Amino acid sequence: MTPADVGDALVAAVRDAVAGGVVPPDGVDVVGRGPGVYASPVALRLGLDPEDLARRVARWPGVLRAEVARGMVVVFVEPGSLAAEVIAAGDSYGVARVPGGGWDEWPRTWENPGFAVRYAYARAAAVRRWADGLGIGPGEPVGLVRDEELALLGALGELPGRARQAERERDPGALVKCLERLAGAYHDVHERCPALPRGDEKPGAVHGARVTLAEAARIALANGMNMIGETPRERI
């Protein structure tokens, strides 16, 4: 489930809880809190019983469970499925109307967070090219259990909420920082959980899953960069 799907589940729970329940015109805020974990202040905002909403949303297809923490409804879903759903959403994933912003072009070193974001996009794009050349297609995103992979899934889930925050606050800062975290998480995956076989290693299901994860990261980074006025480049 994407954050938008979790939002839909919460909207349905609100309408189920209150006949003709009114949902805010700007929708339900959903913020990623980790791999497969999303939190929403919808109960607090609407003055509803969060325990009741959690029970109702837990019945939604794709939701593993839901609970309440400090009045927030916290929804748990299968984390790996997000990667495939980001790809399915494509250039619409997480998109909001965010003011322009970003980083300096120079220096092209790790001290410049903009370089890290641009390089993460270029690396993810290269995985797609190399995988195509090796005949390794995107696979089912299952078995993504390494800490680095889960951290990247968590960062992917965070992006839509931060984009909406940036739109609401008319300040790109929240999205810019999210992109920096997303880029850092992708670099960790790229270096420690390779999507392509090394040496005499045979391609397996894990490689297909990681190709899917890399493509999801590429799409999310591209969408985020486009929102703040950056042009994603496959080579820098």
UniProtKB/TrEMBL annotation:
SUPFAM superfamilies: Anticodon-binding domain of a subclass of class I aminoacyl-tRNA synthetases (SSF47323)
E.C. designation(s): 6.1.1.19
Signal peptide feature range: none
Pfam families for this protein: DALR_1
Top-level taxon in the UniProt lineage: Bacteria
Biological processes annotated in GO: arginyl-tRNA aminoacylation
Keyword Nucleotide-binding tagged: yes
Keyword Ribosomal protein: no
GO MF, one annotated term: ATP binding
Domain DALR anticodon binding: start-end pairs: 117-236
UniProt keywords, alphabetically: Aminoacyl-tRNA synthetase, ATP-binding, Ligase, Nucleotide-binding
The protein, known as: Arginyl-tRNA synthetase
Lineage, opening ranks: Bacteria, Bacillati, Actinomycetota, Actinomycetes, Streptosporangiales
